[in-house]
Design a protein that fits this description.
Number of helices: 2
Shape: globular
Structural class: alpha+beta
Number of strands: 5
Largest sheet: 5 strands, antiparallel
Number of domains: 1
Order of helices and strands: EEHEEEH
Radius of gyration: 12 Å
């Protein structure tokens, strides 16, 4: 199985297991629109992408960023999963799909 974006994957029970540095604009250019592009009910996340990886479901999200002020300046993203084995798959997927600005 290859890593892919997957809007309908069940990500319940995932938690922060790593991080990645990029701007929101870079990630939108690479990954397309976020799976979730709205403030979460608890106000802690405003953008999130879902992935299916060989190591299980994964998420990339802007945890506790003050998105009300400058959402496009988010630069440190949390990678979520059931364990840290998802981290290299998410990072490699982003790098493999990078496009020139």
């Amino acid at each position: 199985m290859e890593t892919r974006l997957h809007a309908d994957i069940n990500v319940n029970g995932t938690h922060r297991v790593g991080s990645f540095t990029a701007s929101a604009n870079q990630l939108r250019r690479i990954l397309g629109p976020p799976t979730i592009d709205a403030m979460s009910g608890d106000g802690k996340v405003t953008m999130e992408w879902y992935f299916e990886t060989p190591a299980g479901p994964a998420t990339l999200y802007d945890y506790k960023w003050d998105a009300a002020s400058v959402p496009d300046e988010v630069d440190t993203w949390s990678i979520g999963g059931h364990d840290s084995r998802v981290v290299p798959y998410v990072i490699q997927f982003i790098r493999d799909n990078e496009v020139s600005p």
